[in-house]
Amino acid sequence: MSRPYVSVQLAARVRADAGHRCGYCRSDERITGSLLSIEHILPIVAGGLTERDNLWRSCRECNERKGAQLQATDPESGEVVTLYNPRTQRWRDHFRWSDDGLLIIGLTTIGRATVALLDLNRPHQIVARQRWVLVGWHPPDDE
Ligand SMILES: [Zn+2]
Fold first, then answer.
1. Which of the residues 24, 74, 93, 137 could staple to 113 if both were Cys, CB 3.0 to 4.6 A apart?
2. Does 40 fall in a domain?
3. pLDDT reading at 3 higher than 80
4. Ligand 1 centroid to residue 60 C-alpha, Å
5. Torsion angle of C-alpha atoms 73, 117, 104, 55, degrees rounded to 10
């Protein structure tokens, strides 16, 4: 499927809304050097529109893992829930950093299901987070 056109103006508005960190794993493009993409929160195949309210920024890996999925299973309760929405929900209401700053811990059914589906604690991310912690760049202090 071809990607829908996102105008320069719309992309700028989404960047202003979302900032420099992935809406899910919170990786900062200014640290990773990999620009975040603009993702459809409600996937196009599910009727998601290319408009500001349905767009956010995410890293390639989170975006690919999310794909066209709308829901995931909370590994703790077994409940199937709608994935975390970075535009309408606050990250800190559903997730927290482990005390050492290396792991994202889901606090709610939505948080745990999203951590599991998107694999928000990928081994290479943990290695990177260890280095970011050492230099004081992580975890973000404004979650
Ligand atoms: Zn990410």
1. 74
2. yes
3. no
4. 7
5. -110
Which domain range does residue 43 map to? 8-134
Token pair 């989170």 is found at: 62
Ligand 1 center to 110 CA (angstroms): 16
65 CA to centre of ligand 1 in angstroms = 9
Rounded to the nearest whole angstrom, what is the distance from the C-alpha of residue 4 to the centroid of ligand 1?
21
In a domain, 141, yes or no: no
Q: What is the average pLDDT across 26-43?
A: 96
Domain membership flag for residue 2: no
Nearest to 45 by CA among 16, 24, 66: 66
pTM of the model: 0.94
Please count the structural domains in the chain: 1
Q: How far is the CA of 77 from the centre of ligand 1 (A)?
A: 24
Interval 71-99: pLDDT, tens: 999 999 999 999 999 999 999 999 999 99
Looking at the domain assignment, is residue 3 inside a domain?
A: no
